[in-house]
Amino acid sequence: MSGQDDDVTARPGDDAAVARRGGPLAPGMRLPDRDVPEVDAGRMKTTAALLRDPTPIHWDTAALRELGMGERAINQGPLNMAYVMNMLAGFAGGHDRVRRLRVRFRGNVRAGDRLRAGGVVTGVRPGQGERGGETLCDCDVELSVVDGDPVLTGTATVALPEEGSDDE
Amino acid sequence: MSEPAGERPEVTADDVAAQVGRSFPGGEFTVERWFAWLLADAALEQPRASVSDGAVPEGSGDELAHPLLAWTAATQAMGVTWDELFAWFGSSADDGPMFGEHETVWHAPMRVGRTYLVSGEITSADRKSGRSGMFDVIGYAFRLHDKEGGAHVADCWNSLILPRRHS
């Protein structure tokens, strides 16, 4: 099983991951990709236990076969959402900067799949946070199997501190 | 495992639609540190990587949790089990229910140690047909409020796809 430290390409708070404000924050700007090198069946089992999710397609390969759904366990939809949240947090500088996420599940993610979460800025507008001014950044987001199809698409809004603020 | 075809009473589109407006019993969910840690780990995130505003003292109630905790808290405290929810629509986990769509709006960050009050209801139920056969699309929504102070913390909307393999 891959260690957590090897599982991701960027994390919230990493200098390289936080949105760079040297260039223009404008529609069309790509968000930094975030990869999941290999979806781990063990984490599906942990998640099933945490969520008290009785759906066997996440942990029982015999049930998968009986349903005609192949041999590899199917990742929980919430985990797929979480990978996109992580990507957004990496861009914005923290999970508390993720303000909205809407997704449509378009396909299954299976144990062993390699994934890539990414997105593009679609709009930039002023907002008002608890600690003063902030910039709200609307995005299209996507999670895809690398060299495969999108499995999740949607839209999101993240809040970025205004340039020059203490939070930047 | 799945029941043999024919043993389960047929669930009609009217049966499914009759559940629209049904409220969840609701409840409360406390974000315990061990739970937040394991969920973040399962989500491939460092358990304490959520912090953008600097370190906070452990146990202060200000430590950020992964935003997936909003959906997690909602579904853990909706007041019914997943099997019970599926049964509202004459379905079960063995039918292979799937996520359709999801939206969360966070009005405040999720935090370790906080207790959230959960309420919600079924918002839609539609029978459809596709390449894989007949299925029902169930919409349901939750609201989360901070138990201490009552602040509105998050709204979650979801749709659930229930295959009708035996219909």
From TrEMBL, chain A:
Residues 51-132 form the MaoC-like domain. Gene3D superfamilies: Hotdog Thioesterase. Belongs to the enoyl-CoA hydratase/isomerase family. Residues 8-18 have a biased composition (Basic and acidic residues). Residues 1-36 are annotated as: Disordered. This is MaoC-like domain-containing protein. The lineage of its organism: Bacteria, Bacillati, Actinomycetota, Actinomycetes, Pseudonocardiales. InterPro entries: HotDog_dom_sf (IPR029069), MaoC-like_dom (IPR002539). It holds the Pfam family MaoC_dehydratas. It comes from the Bacteria.
UniProtKB/TrEMBL annotation, chain B:
It comes from the Bacteria. InterPro entries: HotDog_dom_sf. This is N-terminal half of MaoC dehydratase. It comes from Prauserella alba.
